[in-house]
Amino acid sequence: MPDPKTMKKIGAMMNLLMGAMMSFCLSLVGNLLGGHFTIVGFLISFVISFILSLIIGFCIPHRKWSENAVRAFKAKPGTIQARLVEALISDLVYTPVITLAMVAFAYFTSRANAAPEALAHMPSFMQMFLGSFAVCMIVGYILIFIFMPLFMKIVFKANGLPFPPPQGGPGGPPQGGRPPQGAPGEPPRSGRPPQE
Q1: pTM of the predicted structure, to 2 decimals
Q2: Alpha helices (runs of H) in the chain, residue ranges in sequence order
Q3: Which residue has the higher pLDDT, 185 or 64?
Q4: Residue 162: Cβ within 10 Å count
Q5: 72: exposed, middle or buried (Cβ count in 10 Å: 0-12, 13-18, 19+)
């Protein structure tokens, strides 16, 4: 495995990539669901979502939660089953917070700019949130499942590491078969007793 400094760098790069991707896509979906897409509204939603995603990525140990969930489901790391579990945990961590922030921004902005007679016909905050939440959870899950392994491959290669990382320690998987016998500096014994 890479040294802790490299792993920390990999984690930071993954947080940036995943945060930018999730914020962009969910902000786009949220604004389209709102029915009145504007570039300014989209950009503000993206900035708010990106800041929140960075806070989540750097402050919440969701990677450890994912690893624990994979072990709980007895899934082998790197398999489709493990990726499904990991995507679910990340989706549950990221998407509700980002969706809540986007809906809150859209709700209060629309109420502030609406005419007094239109306020009575506007949906409640909970109606807006629940209407966006289900769609964003599905979209977020698909995005995480598809893009997380792709970003991991990019980040590992950018740091000069193979992906998936080799098993068996920093030097990779154990090489060869039986270990040599005898003390250091001595040739391996054949197993046959010396001839008289």
Answers
A1: 0.74
A2: 4-34, 39-59, 62-72, 80-113, 116-119, 125-158
A3: 64
A4: 10
A5: exposed
